[in-house]
Amino acid sequence: MQQTTPLQISFEDLSYSVKVRARPTSDDDQDGKRRWSPFGKSRYEDKFILQSLTGAFRPGRVTAILGPSGSGKTTLLNLLAGTENAGTTTGRIWVNGRPASGASLRLLAGFVHQDDVILSTQTVSEAITMSIILRPPPLLSVPQSPETIVNHNNPQNGGDITNDLVLPAPASAYRTKGAKTKHSHAGHANVHETARALSLFGLEKCQHTVVGDTSEKGISGGERKRTAIAQEYVTQAPVLFLDEPTSGLDAHSALMVTHQLKDIASTGRTVVAVLHQPSSEMFELIDDIMVLSEGRIVYLGERSGLVDYVATLGYPCAMYSNPADHVFNAVLFGNDVRHMGSQSDAVARAQLLADAWEERSEGAKAVRALVACPELAPIDSSLFRRTSPPTIQLRYLTRRAFLNAVRNRLIINIRLAQAAFFGLLIGLIFLNTQHRPVAVQRQNFAGALFFTAVTQFLLSILSVVNVFTHERTVFVREWRSGYYGLPAYFASKNIVELPIQVILPIIYACISYWLLGLRHDGGRFLIYTVTCIVLNLCGFSFGLLLASLFRNMATILAALPAMFLPFLLFGGLLVNTGNSTVWLRWLQWVSPIKYGYTAMMKNQFSGYVVDGVPVGDSYLEEVDLGPMSIGVNIIMVVVIGLLAWAAAYLALLHLTYKGRGDPIKNNAKKLQMELEGPPDPRFLNGNKEARGETNPA
Ligand SMILES: Nc1ncnc2c1ncn2[C@@H]1O[C@H](COP(=O)(O)OP(=O)(O)OP(=O)(O)O)[C@@H](O)[C@H]1O
């Protein structure tokens, strides 16, 4: 890993609060419950999760954040990494003396979340390669001339493999004449980098195993965690935040991960990790420690100073005992591990310890001096997070979506079988309807065509929501981690899904049309097939919209009937729409089922003659399906589908922009310029004073 510019993250009086429902007061009923009133408003109060934190995380060091459950460790990390935005933040944050925020820090930092979200059908090796391709590390990302794209034998780097990384071809290289060679070299570099990360994180054994999820077992929890760390490691971000990177790992793996964090920090990077119960060996590898309790700092400083500090509070650490355990048991819980004490005891204890730290300790003074006199090295653009060009994102994501679909082959097979099954079912139920009496023909054709319109629309919705709901969380996490932009993701989903949405209705139409005995006419068969296709595509758009709007399948299934049943009721068969309740009649104009059904009915019945008697046109008048032609009805299905498709895109856009911490919303360019600018003048003076450069006069 390359050495990097040292970045010091400092914060002063950093507080974070959320609004929570107020606890009952004396105004409430005696039993503590508030009397319900239609005019009463819920009362909210501020809950402070972090209170007046002042501290700094130094470059080239591993800082561990320790503290009891609920002390605010994850919140602090999320706040600094720009992923916490539900509440109100006050205080100041700086990076190398430049004013910063969580949003701007996100441009510099990699973040390993507590819950690793990786696409379940990806293999470990693919997940790491994806990170290298889509978030190229500095050396890999600078656009180069084609000649310099590959330079394995560059004498300038002395053959050092770490300096010999191959640049992935910039977007233009994929299009130029020699694209194949450059692509293969770029691919070679990625393979090389992936192999290095796999070896470093002990993942070679499982590199070709899929990540898996709760429904399909893949790699183990520890391997998953190490894969998530490796994904961030390969980006070579100058700052790395990790939320419980060792939880769920065995002692050996946890120690291995801590060693790797130490190695990363040794390249000048700032590594901050929330750790739960570090072993003595892990503890020895940590450089700095922050202990939090009830959202306040109880200790922040060098690891070696922790034991001495708690001894000054009256808690000497016995020989051979683990200092981390000692701090938890003796200091934070007052030595009586069997008795947790009440919540107010814990709060009072935390207040005492935090006050002792802030008001009387030398350590807090040293921290304040560090905050006042920070590292001021310039922040240049090479340190910011990069993404690959949209063309490469699209190319990669399309390939991944295709592989994902292939690996979920069972789902595709079921969908294909379903199309054939329903085609066969409807065909056999209404077999050879054209030979039946006219009244039976009318009823059977109308029923079969209505069923066709409904199934084509509904099955498509269900298949999309099923697939996409699983991927939604992955998309949000990957988008936030800077892997790709929404346009590339949305386009790749459509490129892979659309052919399936065309093939399925063709299978259905080919089977059902001839079995049903609809009019023997190639043109009419084509119209029937096209109507099935557009209904499928329209269903696909509605499925995307539902999956983008709602977080999980349960919510979607609760919302689906509210949207679908009015479409069904006003689909043209169940209600004579021309004579329905006037103020509800508009529903027919937004029902894709109605347009699809009407197109198919007109296709079958206009000019339909049985035994020389024209029966079709009079029937169409009777059922009152409106004056629009077949073509206009098909276009209307397309228009509704396109509107739903655009709404799905906007819903995803809203999902990604949600929250104030998003760098894009806060204008990444502006944030970047602030960080690249000069340090806060107060630090310049502070540093001069510290160096004795000021004139006392
Ligand atoms: N949005 C929120 N609304 C209400 N309370 C919250 C919210 N976010 C966090 N909290 C509360 O803030 C406290 C700190 O949460 P946080 O997740 O930071 O703790 P933690 O130290 O990381 O705990 P653990 O070690 O168990 O993961 C908890 O009591 C939690 O319930």
The profile of the biggest β sheet is: 6 strands, mixed
* Overall number of structural domains: 2
Proportion of strand residues: 5-15%
- Which kinds of small molecule does this entry bind, naming each only once? adenosine-5'-triphosphate
Mean pLDDT: 81
Strand order of the largest sheet: 6-7-8-3-9-10
Structure description:
The protein is an alpha/beta fold and 697 residues long. The protein has two domains: 57-383, 3-Layer(aba) Sandwich (Rossmann fold); 390-657, no CATH class. It contains 25 helices and twelve strands. It has a six-stranded mixed sheet with strand order 6-7-8-3-9-10, with helices on both faces. It has a four-stranded antiparallel sheet with strand order 2-1-4-5. Helix 13 (343-360) crosses helix 14, helix 15 crosses helix 18 and helix 16 (409-429) runs antiparallel to helix 17 (438-480). It is elongated and about 105 Å long. Mean pLDDT is 81; it is low at 140-183, 659-663 and 691-697. It binds adenosine-5'-triphosphate. The site of adenosine-5'-triphosphate (ATP) has 13 residues, from strand 1, strand 2 and helix 1. Residues 18, 20, 47, 49, 67, 69-75, 86 line the site of adenosine-5'-triphosphate.
Features of this protein?
697 residues; alpha/beta; Rossmann fold; 2 domains; six-stranded mixed sheet; four-stranded antiparallel sheet; 25 helices; 12 strands; 53% helix; binds adenosine-5'-triphosphate
Concise synopsis of the structure shown:
With 697 residues, the protein is α/β, with parallel strands linked by helices. It contains 25 helices and 12 strands.
